[in-house]
Task: inverse folding
């Protein structure tokens, strides 16, 4: 084990915390679904497991988990899974006797955070909440996620223009600069498959936040923000082009990168990459998305 | 020339008006043809293959006489699906793709992506100092090479061919440095999540110092040639006007925003990679026009030179320091060196994994084929590229490949200003306005 990095149980990075909690929520706590754990050689894992069970070995005691606000696990049921990952090696039905092929791990996004969010996050969230309550729209913000020092506001679709307008114009908020919109397709996030993600910058206060709107595949409509942030003109066209998100109220929602008559929306997860098998010296190589791959 | 003879605009393509195809034939015959028609309103399709559109950009201009009444861009001719492709490769391989987007500033593409991945991995504080300094050094050299091309092609497009030749001459010196340090002139894939791919080669610092000395002599040449040149000023001053309100509304950043007098530079406002430790000024100009943007680029090259100098000094004291994060679950297992056969190889590492440690072999195999996992979540780290705010929205689902990587490219956003900058002006000013935005189509179309 000369090359194995020292993974003392005591200094587990925090990011594993969420995943483990989620694993329990999904009922898979029996197996170690931890990403870094499974990447280690099996013997080593077993050895350490045995050590910790019998109490022998290095004798390192595990420190109490960090209880700072961002590390408090979300209540069960609030953790949102966006799909499942099966196996390890991307091969199904082979003679894999390692057991790794049977792994089932939940794909879990960071859970919503509770107040206080810390730093200026509370100023922004507080100001936003006050204004929304004053207009009886307090349900506009579905949840707030603080992860890796970035704050994400999940906004209800119908309230997006109102929230954006307020973020731009309110004196305490002043998010006058929009970096654009990026689509994300989560095919397994039932009922919220398509996400539109906006990054807003307040040059006045030097702050950066993220807005996220989720809509179902069956009804991919999002209100356009071009009237509030004119820069979104091409960005919304690109997101429509690549994901099929329809921005209602956009002045001319047409494709911008793909040809006008292109069928489908290429960056959706159900759209294949390439698709032409390559033949080389008698052997045929499948298109990239059908090749064996790790998952 | 009439429609019937043209392969590329068949009669069915245009529903109204006559089609004139201008492909370098005698100008007299075209103007005579146009004179005969009574129509004043002419729609000119410029590009996508045109030496003055800064790449494969298509412009659709509506003219009245020589005045542009409407200008629209057609883009997408260089779309290569880089974002989609990245979803099918490991996190490390991602840099190989995104470095090819904006081909004039490859290091910035890599940096935006790599900083996002590092934030998701939560190793931002673990990046070794030497890797940070090398990144800053390469990025600032890259800013110089990119601005040199902006000035060179911008000059060429208005007929100042000497500006082009000297611009490319100096850029070649920067690319020589890139080749020495990374092995490639372009498309380096040198920044990796966790650090950089290789240590600085021996002799690199001397070369960088020689370059700094040379540039201090050569940069004033640009100023002498252009700054007070009446023809140059005649073409650039008050052309492509866009004020601060217009810039913010349209999301314009970079030299165009700074030409309104607003000192917005992400290196100062939201420092990354240790930019807070360097001494440099944000360059602004207050004329809101193409000339101001030219002067800003020229001044920014001086500032970059200052940063390169400081970075080189710091690197001199960091000899032998690590350039990759210590976590062996992320760092590439081997350090390659050029072997006697001219190929990259690492004999010590091969001896280790083949002869000494089975675990090391397994580890190597897993890391190289499968790659590391990145905790689920999303990150966006904007950086100041030569053209403005470049950011990568990186999304992970906890797997070994990016779930989604979206690049907010400044060229894409800034190009939206084409119509505001050029409508109401002359046709020849459209070229100047676009050159002052300095769009790179590889970045626009991705």
Result:
């Amino acid at each position: 084990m000369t090359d194995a990095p020292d993974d003392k149980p005591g200094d587990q990075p925090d990011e594993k915390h969420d995943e483990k909690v989620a694993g329990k929520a999904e009922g898979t706590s029996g197996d170690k679904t931890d990403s870094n754990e499974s990447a280690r050689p099996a013997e080593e894992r077993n050895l350490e497991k045995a050590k910790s069970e019998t109490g022998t070995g290095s004798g390192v005691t595990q420190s109490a988990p960090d209880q700072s606000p961002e590390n408090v696990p979300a209540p069960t049921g609030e953790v949102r899974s966006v799909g499942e990952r099966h196996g390890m090696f991307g091969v199904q039905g082979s003679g894999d006797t390692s057991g790794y092929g049977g792994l089932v791990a939940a794909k879990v996004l960071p859970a919503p955070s509770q107040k206080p969010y810390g730093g200026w996050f509370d100023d922004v969230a507080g100001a936003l909440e006050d204004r929304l309550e004053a207009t009886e729209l307090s349900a506009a913000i579905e949840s707030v996620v603080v992860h890796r020092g970035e704050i994400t506001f999940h906004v209800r679709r119908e309230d997006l223009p109102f929230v954006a307008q307020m973020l731009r114009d309110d004196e305490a908020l002043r998010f006058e600069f929009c970096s654009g919109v990026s689509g994300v397709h989560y095919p397994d996030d039932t009922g919220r498959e398509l996400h539109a993600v906006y990054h807003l910058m307040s040059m006045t206060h030097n702050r950066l936040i993220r807005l996220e709107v989720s809509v179902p595949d069956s009804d991919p409509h999002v209100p356009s923000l071009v009237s509030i942030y004119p820069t979104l003109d091409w960005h919304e066209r690109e997101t429509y082009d690549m994901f099929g998100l329809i921005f209602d109220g956009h002045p001319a929602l047409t494709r911008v990168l793909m040809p006008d008559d292109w069928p489908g929306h290429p960056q959706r997860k159900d759209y294949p990459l390439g698709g032409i098998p390559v033949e080389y010296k008698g052997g045929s190589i499948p298109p990239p998305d059908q090749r064996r791959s790790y998952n | 020339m009439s429609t019937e003879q043209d392969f590329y605009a068949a009669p069915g393509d245009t529903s109204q008006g006559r089609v004139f195809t201008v492909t370098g034939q005698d100008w007299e015959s075209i103007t005579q043809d146009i004179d005969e028609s009574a129509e004043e309103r002419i729609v000119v399709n410029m590009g996508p293959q045109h030496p003055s559109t800064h790449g494969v950009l298509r412009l659709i201009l509506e003219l009245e006489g020589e005045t542009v009444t409407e200008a629209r861009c057609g883009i997408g001719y260089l779309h290569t699906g880089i974002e989609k492709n990245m979803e099918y490769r490991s996190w490390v391989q991602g840099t190989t793709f995104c470095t090819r987007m904006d081909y004039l500033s490859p290091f910035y593409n890599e940096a935006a992506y790599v900083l996002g991945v590092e934030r998701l991995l939560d190793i931002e504080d673990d990046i070794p100092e030497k890797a940070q300094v090398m990144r800053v050094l390469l990025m600032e050299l890259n800013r110089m090479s990119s601005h040199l091309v902006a000035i060179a092609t911008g000059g060429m497009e208005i007929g100042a061919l000497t500006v082009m030749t000297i611009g490319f001459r100096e850029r070649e010196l920067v690319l020589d440095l890139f080749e020495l340090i990374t092995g490639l002139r372009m498309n380096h894939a040198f920044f990796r999540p966790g650090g950089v791919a290789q240590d600085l080669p021996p002799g690199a610092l001397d070369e960088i110092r020689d370059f700094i000395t040379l540039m201090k002599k050569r940069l004033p040449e640009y100023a002498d040639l252009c700054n007070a040149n009446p023809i140059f000023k005649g073409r650039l001053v008050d052309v492509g006007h866009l004020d601060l309100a217009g810039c913010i509304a349209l999301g314009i950043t970079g030299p165009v925003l700074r030409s309104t007098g607003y000192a917005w530079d992400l290196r100062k406002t939201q420092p990354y990679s240790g930019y807070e430790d360097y001494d440099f000024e944000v360059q602004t100009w207050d004329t809101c026009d193409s000339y101001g943007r030219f002067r800003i680029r020229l001044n920014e090259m001086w500032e970059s030179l200052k940063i390169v100098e400081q970075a080189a000094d710091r690197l001199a004291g960091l000899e032998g320091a690590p350039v990759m994060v210590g976590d062996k679950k992320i760092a590439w297992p081997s350090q390659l060196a050029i072997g006697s056969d001219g190929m990259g190889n690492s004999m010590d590492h091969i001896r280790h994994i083949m002869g000494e440690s089975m675990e090391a072999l397994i580890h190597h195999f897993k890391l190289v084929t499968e790659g590391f996992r990145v905790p689920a979540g999303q990150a966006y780290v904007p950086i100041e590229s030569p053209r403005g705010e470049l950011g990568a929205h990186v999304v992970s689902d906890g797997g070994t490949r990016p779930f989604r990587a979206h690049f907010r490219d400044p060229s894409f956003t800034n190009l939206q200003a084409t119509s505001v900058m050029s409508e109401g002006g002359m046709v020849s000013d459209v070229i100047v306005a676009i050159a002052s935005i300095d769009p790179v189509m590889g970045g626009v179309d991705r």
